[in-house]
Protein 1
Amino acid sequence: MKCEVCSAPLDPETLRCPVCGARHTLVCMGCGRVPEPGEKVCRECGEALVPGLDMTREEMATVGQKCFMPYSGDRVYKIYLGGNLDGGGHVFHNLPGYTRTPPEERVVLPSLVEGHPIYGIWNEYFCVGDEFMPALQEATYARMMSIREIVVSRGIQECFTYAFFGCAGLEVLDLPRSLKRMMNDFYDLFMDGKEVMGNGVKKTPITIRYHGTEEDWQKVAVTSRLWDYVDKGCIRMEYLGRDEG
Ligand SMILES: [Zn+2]
Ligand SMILES: [Zn+2]
């Protein structure tokens, strides 16, 4: 399998990338769980085990990603990228060194944090509460403009409504076959299908590059608006086929 950050072949023993050093950990393509040593396919659901990008909290804070990791005692509940839940848990953006600056043109969202699988992508991923206010949205779009491509790592199960809020420059969204629900439909960028960028910048279509077949995508829960945007040419679907080898 290839590195999700730089596409170099991973070391088959360690699942580390020999080129960029990114760490990967096996996750189930079907249910997203981390297998026990020795499992060849997932013993819960029978699906393939694939390497997903595994980052530390500090690494995520440094590149401007945040994560909500609810826990109680020794039990870790579903972990989300982004996240605005209050209550018990570990909110990564309270870490020293967290930067809200969207990092690079190509952003890879990990599917594990310190070996724990990340279930889904919540809202407030790169944005925080105030930036959702209509009066501030244009500034939010400008701040997020540098992001051209977002890669969702293998193992992630859900994208919520505001998962990619404000990513005005986005051209490619790379989605894994593990995805079950795609609730983000880019309404914040396309509204009624017209170009809504207040700064006069023409919003280019977004290509959803899906690592599965068209039949696989039919099983993913999506909004009807997403299909409307496909019809209007705002979103283009590209089916790469199953490529997890
Ligand atoms: Zn790499
Ligand atoms: Zn499974």
Protein 2
Amino acid sequence: MSKSQKKADLWYSKYIRVRSAVEHDGEYYNKCISCGKPMLLKQSQCGHFIGIGKLIHRYNHLNTWPQCWVCNCLRSGESIHDYEQNLNELISPQVVEYLKDSRNNFCKLSKTDYEEIASKYKVLFLNLCADKGIIPW
Ligand SMILES: [Zn+2]
């Protein structure tokens, strides 16, 4: 992975995790899209429904939701079924079908594209942190 792609992934992932974070007793939490368990904001991961290998949806807001480490890394095979089911309810079965049908659509990102994604999501992340009262990390 190139340096610019790593940076794009980093800021995008932070943005997605802060996007759905909710506060409870001074701590921020996310709910895992697959198993539904609550997890601390910084322990949550950015889980992709259509895998990151499919560039077309790698930075798609509808395709990326907070996921726990166990579902994302250990049981990614099984957890994807729960992911799909919960995504059907969260967005809509039509959108889920669209994500699946278009997964192989051509997409090529240049170094400049990655740099733009990184700076865009860095700003969005920092703004969202400020709005929610979260200390950026
Ligand atoms: Zn989980």
